[in-house]
Protein 1
Amino acid sequence: MNDVFIHPSAHVDSRASVGAGTKIWINVQVREEAVIGVDCVISKDVYIDTGVTIGDRVKIQNGVSVYNGVVIEDDVFVGPHACFTNDRVPRVFNVDWKIAPTLVKKGSSIGASATIVCGNTVGEYAMVAAGSVVTHDVPPFTLVAGNPARSMARIDEAGNKVGEIDHGR
Ligand SMILES: CC(C)(COP(=O)(O)OP(=O)(O)OC[C@H]1O[C@@H](n2cnc3c(N)ncnc32)[C@H](O)[C@@H]1OP(=O)(O)O)[C@@H](O)C(=O)NCCC(=O)NCCS
């Protein structure tokens, strides 16, 4: 793992892969078979579960857990304490539960403390406002907010609003 910074308090499994230029900060855990791309920042207290795939130049802020079944593409921002789920109907005694995959597409941003209910896709360059609960797919280039998250505006690559949305999600 050349050119990778791993803080001494972090634990990165030897079967994980971490791309060049990536920084892994205090108390981070990266599980087996996880793949993290180049030039990422994985901030304090982040948990990256088994088999998770994270693209290049992704920034994940403090306290985020990324569970098995979540794929995060290139250039995604994940705000502090955002929560990804992977079991739609959790029961401690269901031994045959299935992972519902979540896809977070290129260039999108997830606001602080947002919850992404599993089985949904956050579209390219979409933005999920702080504290939102995402229960449906988020269209590309769209700002969503609230619980449940509804479409608020069309946005450009930089996140600027470029149009209104009257109805829908
Ligand atoms: C969604 C966001 C981008 C909107 O910013 P904005 O365009 O400047 O919006 P405004 O502050 O003008 O608010 C517009 C309306 O949306 C509402 N709104 C703003 N943020 C909201 C949120 N997170 N959830 C629900 N509604 C929100 C406002 O209350 C306001 O509603 P009103 O017109 O009824 O008063 C911003 O509020 C946000 O959540 N950014 C993410 C911050 C974050 O998590 N950063 C992570 C790194 S620290």
Protein 2
Amino acid sequence: MIRFGICGFGYWGPNLFRNLNTHAEIEVTAVADRSEARRHQARSVKQDLKLCEDAIEMIERADVDAVAVATPVATHFDIAAHALRHGKHVLVEKPLCESGKQAEELIALADSKNVALLVDHVYVFHPAVRLLKKLLAANELGTVSYFDSLRVNLGLFQPDVNVLWDLAPHDFSILDFLFDEDPTYIEATGYSHVHPERPDIAFVTAHYKSRMIAHVNLSWMSPVKVRRTAIGGSKKMVVWDDMNNEEKIKIYNSGIELRPEEQRHIHYRIGDIYSPRVQQGEALGGLVQETYRAITGDRRSVIDGRHGLRVVRMLESAQIALAASMATARKAMGQVT
Ligand SMILES: NC(=O)c1ccc[n+]([C@@H]2O[C@H](COP(=O)([O-])OP(=O)(O)OC[C@H]3O[C@@H](n4cnc5c(N)ncnc54)[C@H](O)[C@@H]3O)[C@@H](O)[C@H]2O)c1
């Protein structure tokens, strides 16, 4: 039995609790949260939980073998590093931490203590993402030319991170899982409408050596929640609409063919549309199963520290591009007015 302690019982912590505690070989024994109300909430879901005000105190408990970190992003590194130094397995919420340098330190600590370091990139376990991975592995789509994602909603405005660090970890982790390739160049732009220093809309474009281009539209300012990703291949194209429970994935037997020998160079192939059944089930359950597997067996995982590092590196590159683009736009607007 793996005994888990959860740091942070705010919005996401209870979801981790529910999924961890329903695993047959895992028991959540402790919860740490600075807020008395949140500790009280934790007590109401499991009477015998050890409750701590402080993450450090909880990590050091002998009845905690593994720690899940569901606190604000700025605290991830310190809490995870402390747990790893104490030889505890660690599952950190997305994003793993605030910089590539911090991620490298966490990986080195986990390696030196021979414990698991995992990051909750829950979409990697989403049945639709698993189906996309199968289609790509079987070369059903052909050569992929683009990945285009729309991830928008009204809020939730985060107090500590901008829209890029809040939402892009989902798309970047999906890209990292689906395509065995790091981007060569990332562009980004955006705007801060509400908090002057915290963009609430961001458009990110990643370029890949394979000639794939990935675009991610992130927003806390949309009247409707949209979670839609299109992937275009030379053979087929796919649209994954996560808000559609009936036809989550549609595969279009459509494409563009270039025939240079003919007068009309471009030919459009418009074929059948097929919607395979996407399994139901909570992705977090799959992530918990993978966490258990990595703790009890091979530490390498599709959501391990190295995967977390690649995602953080993408975030860092996008953040640099976003800040530069916003500064240029501000300057230009200052010249106009
Ligand atoms: N995987 C996902 O889909 C997903 C979804 C939402 C949030 N998250 C992630 O979960 C993390 C938490 O987000 P949230 O929305 O639950 O935030 P939240 O503010 O609702 O909850 C954070 C909790 O941590 C507590 N806390 C803060 N510092 C602490 C410390 N040092 N020790 C103990 N407790 C502390 C706070 O009191 C609060 O109750 C973030 O990293 C976020 O990115 C992931």
